[in-house]
Amino acid sequence: MTEFAWRIDNGQADRVHELFLEAGSISAPGMTLNSREEIATTFGNRARDTSRVSRHLWSNPRYEILGQDRVSVTTVVQTFMGSLTDDEELPVANGNFIVGDSIDVVQRDADRRWLFESRQLKVLFAPPKPA
């Protein structure tokens, strides 16, 4: 989970797919990705958008063993995000803040690496909708 967030927040979103099983999935409001290939395409596009600035924080992990090599981890996720225009520099004015629960299922692969089988984000708090 930390590596997932770090890659997105540090310009390496194009490597997020490496953290997933071949049939891995991500679901969040407005987004459903159902394979490592779809994840690679979507997060590759995100990596090319250098105007996006984000920081993902997670806490309060709750682990549930699903099998010998499979675990579900539920965490509270906080995401701060913004965009820079061509003439702006950091810091970004903050106003986009999301809090939710991330339900992740991880599985050990044949090489004994823990990879995401699925990530699901349930948003609980979001920025106000424009009037």
Please provide a written account of the structure:
- The longest helix has 13 residues, at 36-48.
- By secondary structure, the protein is of the alpha+beta class.
- The mean pLDDT is 93.
- The protein starts with a helix and ends in a 6-residue tail after the last strand.
- Helices cover 16% and strands 51% of the residues.
- The protein is built from two helices and six strands.
- The chain has a six-stranded mixed beta sheet with strand order 2-1-6-5-4-3, covered by helices on one side.
- A hairpin with a 2-residue loop joins strand 1 (20-28) and strand 2.
Produce a short descriptive summary:
This protein has 131 residues and is α+β, with helices and mostly antiparallel strands.
| Sequence of strands across the biggest β-sheet | 2-1-6-5-4-3
Q: Would you count the extended β strands for me?
A: 6
Q: What characteristic shape results from the CA principal axes?
A: globular
* Share of helical residues: 10-25%
Q: Could you describe the largest sheet, including whether it forms a barrel?
A: 6 strands, mixed
Write the element-wise H/E pattern from the N-terminal end onward: HEEHEEEE
Cα separation of the termini: 35 Å
